[in-house]
Amino acid sequence: MLIIGSSFFYGFWNPVYVILPFCLTLLGWRGAIWIDSADGKQKFWRLVCTITLLLLPLLFFKYTNFLINDFLLPLVQFRSVSESEKYVDLALPLGISFITFTLISYVVDVYKGLFQIEKQVKWLLGYILFFPQLIAGPILRPSQLLPQLKKNQPRHRRLWITGLTIFTLGLVKKLIFADQISRTIDPIYAAPDMFTSWE
Q: HSE of 42 in the Cβ direction (CA atoms, 13 Å)?
């Protein structure tokens, strides 16, 4: 349920990019198993290889626009490129840095022996996609969150009602109060020099 809800949350921005955390998690999971099956220097080089592979999508999405539009095109055309002439405009996937560094933290902990490899990929995926921390963090060590996800919690009706009540109150605060206040505040932030401190 957590994976489905978190995937919906992640994909709400751009459904195409939902595949990215799944692929990265699968890569991190297999990489940790691969690292754990080696010893000595071989174990270290497997860690380096896994971290490099995990960083490649992050580097691709972060630097492709710059590399092509701001570096290669001006070099080929011998002039600067205007905004309308830019050939590549890749959107940076939501939370890609967070996902990448969380998975690196997992494989490093497995390498150091601080955490056992996760036998089932679904638990690691739940850890990576955990939506309350997916966008803003912080990066939690696997030992801080994974055992809590695996713990078999009783499913009482009272807990569901309490959770839905808290969620509804938060939604009401956002829709009724925050959105209304933002209508007043947004024009001030848009042109702060037009207002005095008393307005």
A: 5
pLDDT band at 74 (very low <50, low <70, confident <90, very high): low
Rounded Cα distance, 85 and 87, in Å? 6
43-80: string of b/e by CB count within 10 Å (b at 16+)? eeebbeebbeebeebbeebeeebeebbeeebeeeeeee
Q: Do the beta carbons of residue 147 and residue 23 sit within 8 Å?
A: no
For tokens 């696997």, what's the residue? 142
Nearest-angstrom CA–CA distance, 145 and 151: 10
CA distance 29 to 31: 5
pLDDT at 52: 96
CB 32 within 8 A of CB 56: no
> For residues 26, 35, 104 and 113, what is the CA-based torsion angle, rounded to 10 degrees?
120
